[in-house]
Fold this protein.
Amino acid sequence: MRRALETSRSQNFAEWYQEVVRRSDMAETSAVRGCMVIKPWGYGIWELIQQQLDQRFKETGHENCYFPLFIPLDFIAKEAEHVEGFAKEMAVVTHHRLKAIDGELVPDPDAKLTEPLIVRPTSETIIADSFRNWISSYRDLPVLVNQWANVVRWEMRTRLFLRTAEFLWQEGHTAHIDREDAIEETMRMLEVYREFAETVMAMPVIAGEKTENERFPGADNTYSIEAMMQDGKALQAGTSHYLGTHFAQAQDIKYQAADGTEKYAHTTSWGVSTRLIGGLIMTHGDDDGLRVPPALAPHQIVILPRLRGEEGDAKVLDYCRQLRSELVVQSALGARLRVNVDSKDRGASNKRWDWVRRGAPILLEIGPREIENGQVSYLRRDVLYEGEKIKSTAVNHADFVGLAASLLEEIQKNLYDEAKTRLQSRIKIGIDSMAALSGYFGEADSEDEEGVSTSGASDLGWARVAWCKPTGKKLEEVEAMLAPLKLTIRNVPLDQPTAFGKCIFTGEPAVEEIFIARAY
Amino acid sequence: MRRALETSRSQNFAEWYQEVVRRSDMAETSAVRGCMVIKPWGYGIWELIQQQLDQRFKETGHENCYFPLFIPLDFIAKEAEHVEGFAKEMAVVTHHRLKAIDGELVPDPDAKLTEPLIVRPTSETIIADSFRNWISSYRDLPVLVNQWANVVRWEMRTRLFLRTAEFLWQEGHTAHIDREDAIEETMRMLEVYREFAETVMAMPVIAGEKTENERFPGADNTYSIEAMMQDGKALQAGTSHYLGTHFAQAQDIKYQAADGTEKYAHTTSWGVSTRLIGGLIMTHGDDDGLRVPPALAPHQIVILPRLRGEEGDAKVLDYCRQLRSELVVQSALGARLRVNVDSKDRGASNKRWDWVRRGAPILLEIGPREIENGQVSYLRRDVLYEGEKIKSTAVNHADFVGLAASLLEEIQKNLYDEAKTRLQSRIKIGIDSMAALSGYFGEADSEDEEGVSTSGASDLGWARVAWCKPTGKKLEEVEAMLAPLKLTIRNVPLDQPTAFGKCIFTGEPAVEEIFIARAY
């Protein structure tokens, strides 16, 4: 059976991923190493991610700001763990002018900066500098801000959306009177991410805490949401950090408490990025391309007029535009329907397959026959086939208009249910030793240089096991046992049982359960 | 009479501007030279500018994309005029890693880039590189994209919003089959800017073409909208460029025409930036701070409960929140009302003056007396005084709810009318010689190092004069005559009479009218 992509997920998951990105017209590599061009269909999805997250941030009391792209070198140097974590992969600006020397354009030696500037890899340090100025009394707290920005982390191995030198993200930054209030914020935003991922992206996730070795550089606690991709690997899709007073001490963010004493503020930060789009692809894509959940589809319904380059075409186009105007006043998933009439001068079959690959949730095909019968024919992208044939359903024009919103909501739910079933069916429980773990995961998959498996999507998933929560050197020993299998500890899920068995690494009594998986 | 700012416009316009920015809590300088921090009130205005422009871009057929922050050095070098225009003020990335050497963090000498990267000052060159890949046939045209992004132009003299090293903007980039189609796009977007400035920003502007020496580096034609600030100076508030085939030739953007021949695409670009917020301040600010037009106010109505730290407070707060819920379901200026209850723990008078300085269009003050009478008391920021006293109007609760939307629309119109009257009254016509021009403008104002006049707002404005449209060396001679007076040619307005007198510079027959003014 012929599919719309050349590579199937089961043949080669990594190549399949690249083909989806390219043929769904979402993004492409640029002339600048590691930087991508996000094309209209990909950027349209990102805009809908932004809008729906931004609404949630505002509803939880946050306001947007904008902080400088550049960070002075000594800001980075101030927080020791932060330096360690980021210093190795940053773009450094050293000059502020070019000059033609011997006919060649070069950085002007007379325009060297006294102190180099770093292109922000994240903004804790520069935002802490503002917080110091904004905060003097307990009355100024909490400070709750967010910014939508581009950040740069030099990456030698890049993959569109998943790992690029420049990416787009949001970073929330907050300051609080004490640990309790800051932890409450940290957990609130983790929950915002979980709810957003599941409701809007139709991507089920596990929320939990990262181990001490996987914390953000400079954090006391790091929490994540982890999603399971179709090859069974985990994708860290969002993080929320309680930063304690590390950045407050480094940048001197103090306030006068109600009792008159001077205290350090407790800060948090939390972020998600364009990496989410990579997660979307590997959660919902199939062998025909992407399937975009309706809540994130720039066009939820694409109307394809069957044009023949003859005078009947005008009537077909009119019918399509009329249909569009009836649909756009309907609402689904909390917003007006987004409907596009694709009247481009291209063959009907090419257009159909382009939109299948892009993953528009519903395609309507309208030709003279439909108009004559007062009908529309539609394809649902989530269930494209009936047996080996494309399933096209003909319904009355008016019935479709009445049905469209609930159809979109059904597709949204269907995509979520499918992903949820996969996640649940691939969580392996009952593993009680390192040997059993090793037996379950077997040999590490082969991978391409960007760390994406080049073998087909496996049926493996994640193991949920009990452990004794070792720290320091003992934790490193555990990581060293997992490394040859390319396994990592994903997180300690918030949802824990009341009793535990034995630690699979040491045999000691366990204190909590963790997820172990291969990961992006 | 005491006002909410320390400096009045008539005392010192430059200092007044700085005080407005600072005390309206819109932005502040950062630790990075030339880069600003945009605070929630300033960023909230920018978000509303973005939303309302973005809607207009989409309605005119454009889609958003995202292109790399970095531009390879040789891209800049390819288009000769473009280099000349931008090479002198760019941030240059030369290293991709830091290293601790002798305890000091420095750019790692082993991580020097083979080719330096430029932080984009504008994106024509890198976008042209994508256009080359996207365009092969006339069927692919037009390409109509836009991006919202940060750009960097190294500035030694900075002023918040007006001139900063990093600023936020949008840049539209389009490619067309021929000159006619590209010019049509150029003019369409100029008109979008004009309509947006006047309708949304309540800022009347003059749309026209820049002279050949004021064109964008690499453009065939540059058009601008120019707004008159309260000190009589002009602010270039937006530009739209027809780029001819310059960038198409430099980056080889060719297409196969319907007749089978190969042709260069014609491109355009157009942009506005956070500079608009500087224009907003200098158009609508007064001696009490900013006055934000309702269409751009993050909070259009701010409700100030008079709290006394006693048990009656809960009742006052409930009343305010109830009032808010009745107001937010109303619509004005095409959107739901934006209403804030400021329940912060601060004195009522401080809060009133904070919101006056920020320029919220309507302030509602609610205390036990208003509740008892079933009333609200409101202040209109556009007409704050009656004689020397603050004008507070008491109306029935229900009447205010019914009135609020039309009140906001009236304020929007009132701010526009005020600015329009000023613009019209300060356009000097009838000047027929260079001597008369010199006599009208007199001595150049004193200015601070950022080029903002330090004298008070003058009653001078712009001169509309006729000229013979000299080019080349003759145009330079005209500019040299204007330079000592700090005058520049702003633009050639689209709206022209049918007959002209003599050129004020040469005495020859004139062919068009131009605006001459001092400018930011």
About this structure: Chain B has 14 helices and 30 strands. Chain B touches chain A through 66 residues (CB under 8 Å). Residues 397-425 of chain B form the longest helix (29 residues). The first strand of chain B starts at residue 27 and ends at 29.
